[in-house]
Amino acid sequence: MRAPIGRIALYVAVVSALASAPAFAQERNAYFGQTHQHTSWSLDAYLMGNTTTGPAQAYEYSMGETIKHPAGYNVKIKTPLDFQGVTDHSEYVGVMRLANDPSSAISKLPIAEKLRVTKDNPMVKVFQWMAGSLADGKPIESLLSPEIIESVWQNNTKIADKYNKPGKFTTFCSYEWTSMPQNQNMHRNVFFKSCNDLPKAPFSAIDSDHPEDLWNWMDSQRKNGTELLAISHNANLSNGLMFPLELDSKGKPIDAAWAQDRMRNEPLTEMKQVKGTSETTPALSPNDEFAGFELMNYLIGLDNSFSKPNGSYIRQAFQNGLAMQDTHGYNPYKMGVVGAGDSHNTATAYSQSDYFGDHGDIDPTPEVRLSGKVVSGMTVIETGTSGLGGVWAEENTRESIFDAMQRREVFATSGVRLKIRMFGGFGYDKDMMSKSDWVKNAYAGGVPMGGDLTGAKGKAPTFVVWALKDPVDGNLDRIQIIKGWTRDGQIFEKIYDVAWSGDRKLDPVTGKLPAIGNTVDISKATYTNDIGSVELKAMWTDPDFDASQNAFYYARALQIPTPRWSTFDALKLGVLPPGNVPATIQERAWGTPIWYTPTEAEAAKAKSGLMVADLVKNKATALDDAELKELVFGKNLRVRNNVTGLTSNVLFGMDGKRIATELDSELSQGGSSNSVSSTSAAYEIKDGHIVTTIEGTPFELTVYRSGDKYVAARNDEFGHANYELVKAAN
Amino acid sequence: MPANNGAHPRAQSEIEASKGRSTLAGKPGGRMRRLLGEPLVHFFAVGALVFGAYWLLEPDAAPDTRKIEISANDVRQIIVAWLAQGRSPLTRDQLQSLIDQKVSEEVLFREGLALGLDRNDEIIRRRVAQKMDFLAADVAALQEPEKAELETWYSANTDRFAVPPHMSFRQLYFSPDLHGENTQDAAKAALDAIAGKAADSAEVAAVGDSSSLRNYYRKATPELMLKEFGPDFATELFKLQPDGWRGPIQSGYGWHLIWIDSVEPGRVPSFAEVETEVKSAWRDARYLEIKRDALEEMRGQYTVVVPPLDTIDMSNLLGTEQTPTVSPEMIPQ
Predict the structure, then answer these.
(1) Please, what is the Cα angle at A41 between A38 and A46, to 5 degrees?
(2) What is the reported pLDDT for B64?
(3) Does the distance separating the beta carbons of B102 and A103 come in below 8 Å?
């Protein structure tokens, strides 16, 4: 039987979504908020010179009051937020607040030797030492007194309650779980629905740095009636750990229970924050011309480090989730997306024109920001403004916003108050959007972002997309729908332009929309809204729909180009904008996907490719090391991908290097038949596999002799044997 | 943006303590009431309460550095601190272990001081400064204001509690997506056409561009309008008069004609309506006040010497050719 558990889970999700649909869903508003904020209460923030402002000032800032930047100057938000949860690190929380408790403050003096900041032991080193103790799993016991942790947590709650003004400004009780094994970022922010009945202390990465243990603890909270959820972030800096395919963080095979634990506990992830975008990267999405947006790539705390792209980006996780759904019957990666900050300044900069850095005394002035400074692996010029989290909720209250997060009716922006919305259904009326009550009909006839579609019954799904500009920022360029799908354990994506400003036409050859143009005067850091639209909307039906394939669809709206913060900084200093980052930026919003899952009957119609299990059943034998050497060593092989029809020449050199050259790509999306691309990587033959890497991520190829043919399976294609190997003339 | 050269101002100043004595000692027989009004007195009184600072009470007694004495009062304080965290009563063993812990702490603390570990330590300096800050908060929290005092304070700070105006209005939208540069003119022309027409008349219903913006806002505040339409719209909207079509006014989306159904002007609530909030705000304000006054008074007892800033070469922050004239320490004369 195929995928029973996934189907049941899906069924339950649909039924519960229907049951809980409120009467006035069509009156949901977009609220913008911050789900990731540090203050002086966070150890690292304190060490960066943020020593005086706490959660209270964070809320005051977000409500529109002027507060002090750690460097001493005043900062004020342009447009106040609708909601916020302060998320100080739970690890060593309050260490810097020991002064609160005179006896314990003094008691920590012996450790102060290591905490002492001198010329030879700068702040950064202290941070590396303390963060390192977390990364290595060797916490500094003397800094973990329960008295400190509990009293700080209670204070945090008191402050959140004080600033919570239902209907005007919502605060959350929240904190950050800071798991960082070997500097690989696994952080999650934990949000509580209410501030009543909270646990005595947060579950920190010192309790355990395994997300599975965090989920267990969250489950036990839920059992006691305390509702909570986690938001993962900086997948981009996780070195592939954030979205694993085969093994969990403890080395156990991922299964349906793991997928359910993950989805129950962490329905959301951060698409964009000050340390980069986690949507995708050009390496994973070569056909996405907008993929190179505010990217960062390093391991937090390590100089000259690199985070592997595979397993580190959300779009790929969405895709792999589909493949897991298709092959195993569960999808651990049906996540909603929010934008957030992670500023360590108590205050957060959202606007390019008003940027004031994110990390205390590391980046407080235009001079240091443009100086080319790299701190513990972080290239300051690549960091940026905070993203924003958008929720579609009935009202601005804890309950309503939390419910929206839980049902994933959320979106992310790069920091602007750009609103985006998408619905999907099979029976929408063609001119529905010309009527003023289209939202009501969109809810009635389909599902909003974060929802599930199934039961196509011969129809392709139609999506309703809509975006409205930020009233104090750039106009809109376009809305795109990004589709991901899976076939035979392989993953695919395609980007459709569906609504755009002006009278541009899609290129008949490439199918691409020409660029919007550019009004930015780089030398003055100005732009005009003479191009672009205020509002964009469209109905779009998938022209390539295959009812037998799992798929997701999400919307992305782009603004016209505006000056990046570094261009404003350059203007302030009277210098040219730095050449190593773009001078302009296309701010954007990302919607949470809508997922399509075929019914059993529809899925059965797909002609499944060859499985490893089939090969074994048909007495094919796996080649051993000697046979593999004989087959490939020093040889030129033609490798055909039976799913895409793409053929590559792979030369397995005697020097342990393999060079793959794509021969033709007439069947690939949008490619021309002459395009040729080459990649080179090391390989070795080990334990019956050819082991090589793609973009730094290792994978194994197992080769089977089946009759007179050689068939190969990749270990990351979920049991499918998708490749045919033929010896080519040298 | 305010100028900032990225350097800590602290690092550039030299602060020399004058021969000032502590305020407590320096106010011979001042009137009790006046004395209690002194922020510094509050500081040290609370400091003594909280820290049990014997140096304050016996400033001349040189402590025996090789003797650690835990008094019966100290033990009681340990027990109280334990119970204050809502725990069940201490067993004798637990108490003994807490006392041992305290003794060990004291030993390590003194040894650390002897080694000079507290010197030149940015973290410790900040912590001590922060501690003084917490004292100010404690002083503010200790004070229970008289109602009359609260009322007086409220009348001087009513703007912080003002209820904003609320406006219910209709809006007709004119989109630059459709009219481009002529959007304002289109709105003006529409205004001429519907002037004098009722808000819900059929002629009006046909005017304006369709959009997802709501065409009716009930009890909107300036803050909500700023978030929804931008700051200029929020300002202009609340200048408009009811009874008739007004505008056009501009938002971040385009131009709008406005029909105001009702306005509740902003008002100052009575003290009784907001007493709880006033009390909490009074405490916050008092905290800042105590902090500021105490700092001012303490600073008044120091002679502060800072090198003239124009003698500092901002492009040579290493100061290689100079011997450091800057010390972060407070040096008693």
Answers:
(1) 85
(2) 62
(3) yes
